[in-house]
Design a protein that fits this description.
Elements: H1 3-13, H2 21-28, H3 32-44, E1 49-52, E2 56-59, H4 68-72, E3 83-90, H5 93-102, E4 109-116, E5 134-141, H6 149-169, E6 174-177, E7 181-184, E8 187-199, E9 204-215, H7 243-258, H8 266-272, E10 279-283, E11 288-296, E12 302-306, E13 311-314, E14 318-321
Parallel strand pairs: 3-4
Antiparallel strand pairs: 1-2, 4-5, 5-9, 6-7, 7-8, 8-9, 10-11, 10-14, 11-12, 12-13
Helix pairs in contact: 1-3, 2-3, 6-7, 6-8
Length: 324
């Protein structure tokens, strides 16, 4: 890493505390002048760093700018091989991953953005992605042996990973609406979109992009009217939890589960589900059918019983919980 990147990692680890210039210089193995220049560059990029004579430098605890060094400080050893790239704003982090895949990027590339201009949800919907209050993360997965059912696995692993991150870093309880939505306090705070790319010559699946959008804080002007009754945020206002730490914890949990290559996480997914036993609507492009959610199977499909008594396992699609 550059001096600036290494310094930023040090600041992130000590947010809200002063660090002397002498200590920084010794720790980084550079001159005091090099430290000063790196601080100036970071300040120009928007980082709120205070300099006080005889005290040193302090990154404000309220500073919450996403960066590779800051995220990397919180990553586990299981994430040592992933390739992070952070953007201030993109059209869609899923699009970035697809473009990178076409250019030869391999398994474990992760695109992270502070905002999206064209974030996507399921069924062609947009995903509201305002600046600086959420995190938008997409992972490129290129497994050696893969099939369509594996897409559901990646989506559900991501859901468990987000729930674990929320509950480790906050006092909130997270729950899952099959298959891809995370709720806190009965409000949707996270959506997950997994998109597959196929080789047209042999119809084999080349890769999957898993996109995760999380609302950490409420948008400054509130959620759009269309989302106001369902959308929410993990926390009510900015605090001690940084978005860098949240991103890292999601990645830590995802790769920890994914690398095990088993279904041991499914019980946790079941326990987090709030749809089991509920009356639901099963929504397809052709129709909406009333059903009861019975169980989540070992492959994470949703077992449902329709009003006519027939049962089926949904491996994809959309449901809504009916309010009595």
């Amino acid at each position: 890493m550059t001096t600036k990147e290494t310094l930023l990692a040090l600041f992130e680890k000590n947010r809200g505390f002063f660090i002397s210039g002498e200590y920084i210089a010794q720790n980084l193995g550079v001159s005091r002048t090099a430290v000063w220049k790196a601080v100036k560059k970071l300040q120009k990029e928007g980082f709120d760093i205070t300099a006080v004579t005889n005290r040193g430098y302090c990154l404000s605890k309220d500073t919450d700018i996403l960066s590779v060094p800051a995220i990397s400080e919180y990553l586990s050893d299981e994430c040592k091989d992933i390739h992070l790239e952070v953007f201030r704003s993109v059209d869609s982090t899923n699009n970035i991953c697809k473009q990178k895949a076409n250019l030869g990027e391999t398994n474990g590339y992760v695109a992270i953005a502070s905002s999206q201009s064209s974030g996507r949800g399921r069924r062609g919907r947009t995903f509201y992605s305002p600046a600086d209050t959420g995190v938008y993360v997409s992972m490129l997965i290129v497994p050696e042996d893969f099939h369509g059912a594996g897409i559901v696995r990646l989506t559900t692993i991501s859901a468990v990973a987000v729930c674990r991150a929320i509950e480790k870093l906050t006092d909130k309880k997270a729950s899952i609406k099959w298959v891809n939505d995370i709720y806190v306090n009965d409000r949707k705070v996270c959506g997950i979109l997994s998109e597959a790319s196929y080789n047209l010559e042999d119809a084999k699946l080349d890769c999957v992009v898993v996109g995760i959008g999380v609302n950490l804080y409420p948008p400054k002007n509130g959620f759009p009217i269309a989302l106001a009754e369902t959308a929410g945020s993990i926390l009510d206002k900015p605090g001690s939890l940084s978005r860098n730490q949240l991103v890292a914890e999601i990645l830590n949990n995802f790769w920890s589960i994914y690398l095990k290559d088993d279904n041991s996480y499914v019980d946790e997914y079941r326990k987090k589900s709030f749809v089991l036993g509920k009356e639901i609507d099963v929504i397809t492009p052709k129709e909406v059918r009333k059903a009861t959610a019975l169980a989540i199977n070992d492959d994470c499909s949703l077992q449902v019983r329709y009003e006519d008594g027939t049962e089926t396992a949904l491996s994809s699609g959309e449901i809504s919980v009916r309010v009595k």
